[in-house]
Amino acid sequence: MAAARAAFDDCPRERAHEFRALIDALVAELPADSPLGPFEPARARDSTGHSDKAVPPYREAPARGLTGHKGRRAGIRPSGSPRNARQPEEGVKLLTPELDASCGELDDAIRAILALCPSGLGRDREGLSLVLGALVPHLPCHQRSMADYARAPADPEA
Question: Exposed, middle or buried, 141 (CB in 10 Å: 0-12/13-18/19+)?
Fold first, then answer.
């Protein structure tokens, strides 16, 4: 799977169907009840512009027992997919609770995905606030002032 993904990163988008077919072939080699069975094809579809087809298998993977980092990703990724499928309000609804459930290295990814959702609802200031908030811990200086700016865009009076 890792080699297929690495090869896809260097592949032109018009060959995305070949990548999906390769992932499907690799998944066919897994045991029928493998939690990776739905997860990997969902990732392949999501990363090739077919988010609408990714949500059901993403949700199936944890139900099959996918845990750990990939299990957490399976829970988060379908939250971004509704945004891609022109349902940003569903993405906001699914991702907002994830802001309070710290998951370490995925926290910034949650904020980045969630930041795109309000924009689709005409709430660009809210999205900007999320992006700035995710950026603050990575800044070498100005963290306090940037954290203040991150809170301010959500409040048009600030």
Answer: exposed
Domains by residue range for the chain, with CATH:
2-122 (1.25.40.10), 124-158 (no CATH)
d(CA 102, CA 89): 22
Tell me: the pLDDT tens digits for 30-49?
Answer: 999 999 999 999 999 988 88
Distance CA 18, CA 23 (A): 9
Q: Please give the model's pTM, rounded to 2 decimal places.
A: 0.69
- The C-alpha angle with vertex 93 and arms to 88 and 97, in degrees rounded to 5, equals 135
Task: Locate 89 and state its tokens.
Answer: 């309000």
**Two tokens at 128?**
């900007």
Q: Six-digit token pair at 81? A: 């997919």
